[in-house]
């Protein structure tokens, strides 16, 4: 109904609505491409920075990056933040604390290309939540999700009918569930809460929840050596993959919804495969290419279904 209300509001043209959809798709694509690089950095740091420590410093860098822009808005909306602290804590746990830590953990023994393909399952979680909320997805979009999921399952099982999940695959499936749940949760973002205030608050809460585990990691595993090969990737995931990508993704969901943004997210396996080959020298064989074809085929079908849904709304 909210979409229909916006379309039928006097003075709101179809061109304006189309621009909003176009901007949302563009922002979702920016976040997807930038996040693809984070899978490569997670894999690249697997033998030099413990997963929890990599996650903790990612969010510290992100906080430093967004603080100059977000502090004033966050302070102005402090009463609203206190009222919705439960929502913000859950969003932080799913999207900040758990998601990135699980990705880093998977990177210990899982190629970056495989990580990216398994993460393609997360938009299915987004769409399921939206369907439970009463939103119709359309036949083509559902078929697209099924096809893409088939590609992910084929990849995880390595073609076997009785797959045994590796530890890395298990961590990545858990990460996909966390990220899909986080994205769906954003549709319930408190009215009036600014994008920068949301970003800064979730980063603070996520880093605070990681701090005790970070302390345990330091005591048990020791710290890591600060050198260009470790600091550079952490700066990338902190500034680009966190501050910029999360802002773009959150804005995209506010414009086009989690399910439609999730269709764009299906392009991530291709981006990760190209980056992992260029940076890490990971090769993609015929089996992985078959899985990627299925996943990208699901993208095409899902995008077609989204377009059909928009035409029905306008009619």
UniProtKB/TrEMBL annotation:
The chain crosses the membrane at residues 21-40, 52-71, 83-102, 114-132, 139-156, 168-186, 193-214, 234-250, 262-280, 286-309. It comes from the Bacteria. GO terms for cellular component: plasma membrane. This is Drug/metabolite transporter (DMT)-like permease. Residues 23-156, 167-301 form the EamA domain. It is found in: Cell membrane. Keywords: Cell membrane, Membrane, Transmembrane, Transmembrane helix. Gene3D superfamilies: 1.10.3730.20. It is a multi-pass membrane protein. Belongs to the EamA transporter family. The lineage of its organism: Bacteria, Bacillati, Actinomycetota, Actinomycetes, Kitasatosporales. InterPro entries: Diverse_Substrate_Transporter, EamA_dom, EmrE-like. Its main location: membrane. It comes from Streptomyces candidus.
């Amino acid at each position: 109904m909210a979409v229909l209300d916006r379309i039928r509001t006097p003075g709101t043209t179809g061109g304006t609505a189309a621009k909003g959809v176009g901007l949302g798709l563009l922002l979702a694509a920016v976040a997807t491409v930038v996040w693809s690089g984070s899978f490569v950095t997670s894999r690249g740091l697997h033998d030099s920075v413990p997963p929890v420590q990599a996650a903790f410093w990612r969010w510290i860098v992100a906080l430093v990056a967004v603080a100059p822009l977000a502090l004033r808005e966050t302070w102005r909306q402090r009463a609203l933040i206190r009222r919705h602290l439960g929502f913000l804590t859950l969003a932080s746990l799913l999207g900040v604390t758990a998601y990135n830590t699980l990705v880093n953990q998977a990177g210990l023994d899982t190629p970056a290309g495989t990580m990216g393909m398994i993460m393609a399952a997360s938009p299915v979680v987004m769409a399921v939540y939206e369907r439970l909320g009463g939103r119709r997805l359309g036949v083509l979009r559902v078929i697209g999700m099924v096809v893409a999921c088939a590609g992910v399952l084929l990849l995880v099982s390595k073609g076997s009918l009785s797959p045994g999940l590796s530890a890395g695959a298990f961590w990545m499936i858990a990460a996909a569930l966390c990220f899909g749940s986080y994205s769906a949760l954003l549709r319930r973002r408190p009215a009036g809460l600014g994008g920068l205030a949301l970003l800064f608050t979730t980063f603070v809460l996520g880093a605070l929840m990681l701090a005790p585990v970070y302390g345990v990691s330091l005591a048990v595993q020791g710290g890591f050596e600060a050198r260009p090969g470790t600091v550079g990737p952490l700066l990338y995931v902190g500034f680009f993959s966190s501050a910029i990508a999360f802002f773009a993704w959150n804005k995209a969901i506010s414009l086009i919804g989690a399910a439609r943004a999730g269709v764009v997210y299906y392009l991530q396996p291709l981006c990760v495969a190209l980056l992992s080959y260029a940076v890490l020298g990971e090769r993609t064989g015929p089996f992985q290419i078959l899985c990627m074809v299925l996943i990208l085929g699901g993208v095409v079908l899902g995008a077609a279904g989204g377009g059909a849904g928009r035409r029905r709304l306008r009619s």
